[in-house]
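PROTEIN–LIGAND DATA SHEET

This sheet pairs a single protein chain with one bound small molecule, flavin-adenine dinucleotide, given as SMILES. Inputs appear in the order they were entered. The predicted three-dimensional arrangement of chain and ligand is reported afterwards as a token string under its own label.
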Amino acid sequence: MSDTTPIVVPDIGDFDAVEIIEVLVAAGDEVAAEDAIVTLETDKATMDIPAPFAGRITELAVSVGDKVSQGDVLAYAEVSKDAAPAPEAATTATTAAPTAAAPAASAFHGDADRHAPLVVIGGGVAGYTAAFRAADLGMSVTLIERWPMLGGVCLNVGCIPSKALLHMAKVIDDAAGMVAHGIDFGGPPTIDTNKIGDWKNSVIGKLTGGLGAMAKQRKITVVQGTARFLSANALQVAGDDGDEVISFDQCIVAAGSEPTPLPGAPDDPRIVDSTGALELGELPKRMLVIGGGIIGLEMAAVYCALGVAVTVVELTDNLIPEADADLVRPLHKHIKARYENIFLGTKVEQLAAEKDGIRVTFSDKDGQRDDLFGRVLVAIGRRPNGTKLDAEKAGVTVNPRGFIDSDNQMRTNVRHIYSIGDVRGQPMLAHKGSHEGKVAAEVAHGEKRAFDARVIPSVAYTDPEVAWVGPTEANLKQQGVAYEKAVFPWAASGRALAMGADAGLTKLLFAKDTHRVIAMGAVGTHAGDLVSEAALAIEMGCDAQDIGLTIHPHPTLSETVAMAAEMFDGTITDLIPKKRTR
Ligand SMILES: Cc1cc2nc3c(=O)[nH]c(=O)nc-3n(C[C@H](O)[C@H](O)[C@H](O)COP(=O)(O)OP(=O)(O)OC[C@H]3O[C@@H](n4cnc5c(N)ncnc54)[C@H](O)[C@@H]3O)c2cc1C
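PREDICTION REPORTED AS:
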């Protein structure tokens, strides 16, 4: 078997972005170790970059005039089977040993059990989307997933089960809210967490089962096992029936992420991450949610609806710190009245397991205190799985935070290996991952594609929902970008009033010079569904009139988007318009 290995720029001293003045090889050329590949020219000297091993050049990654730095890939080569690596692949102009930024790929000379033209590591939303798209383009695809079901975090322990439980929570809250309007179902509901769990699992099962069937229909080879790189063209997959080696031409890494644990927390079943929290089990009387971000607040909403006294503790001074404060305020007000406590600007110093619960020590500007909880959810973020793949054996760089960076074609520093989804970087969202999956599949198929989405929407499926797309006002202020704002309060929306959702608001942000929509934020029931219109408007370069003059159905919450545009345009009739000249 032959391997394609990147030839990278070694340590070239203090030089950066050095111009290539000559490319000395072409695809198909045989080279001996130490043969010059390219010549670089700095203002002080010219230097040849030698091949670190003997082999055949399969692809050039650079051309004359390109500027390269240490670690950049110059070419890919098949390593000769009997090639010994060059003793020291130093440049002819320097004597320093090559310590490239990108790790040198290992050579794997064993026999593969099978060959896959395209292999995808990870069957989550990013990975299965890439695999399905590539198969639909006619590629032969092997999808490796360590779990028995496809769907990854989103379908199994993330987006979908949490939304099933949030739907249930909303039904409970809405029913309770009707008491004031003359409909009383006769006190708090009887909760059977086993049945709720069965229902949640049936929703998951329908989706993941559907994925398995669709993979089959597309003739995708699904391999269950844990993959690790052996080289830039081979993987080892550890499965229940033993290990196998799969060689590949191209690989898409979609290995996802996992919950970040709280350092020093004891190992105790009453301390759970989001996966544990989705298994409701026997409900505690009091629960602490550590982390006032989206995942923590969604789970808090579920437990509160089920009758648990919930406390949320957040290190920063705001819930959902990445969203604008005006959007979070109505949510904060709503949950403050329901939750036992919301501690902002507060750090959890220690968790200690006691017989009657988990003792938690908090600290804030006023000092330390402690309290006892029956369950503690740690929802302080997620960390990527980039460090668990032996990526260095493929020459793939894993950044210090564990992400595998890739360019807008999803190519990592090793051109035929791509990264997508949570393992590629923030925001860790399913819809970002699936979009990247399509880009990677199309690029792997040879299409001229790149990730060029202008915006990625974010939604907290809390009650009320908080959603935004495009930069926040805080972002814009930080960057000194001039913008204008229009806000439509839901108290003036007939539909919102009829739904008891009049605390919501919809705001649009416009570029000051062009008046094009650059962002939207909304808080209220189904806010997450409303931001899609603004996402399309931003992608299409719409201005306020494009939205305001589009007829929206009445009475709907979607009208609030049009009315915010009319507020900006001065054409609103449902409220008094701000005077505008146009
Ligand atoms: C509680 C919760 C709620 C969420 N809600 C939302 C939401 O409402 N909307 C939203 O957009 N996002 C949500 N997310 C985030 C969303 O789930 C992730 O962004 C998404 O799952 C990322 O998809 P992925 O394919 O990149 O990674 P993952 O879903 O993590 O999938 C990676 C897959 O790779 C497999 N794998 C990893 N390493 C290997 C290996 N070495 N070999 C073989 N297989 C491997 C894993 O088993 C996994 O199946 C939520 C997350 C959580 C935890």
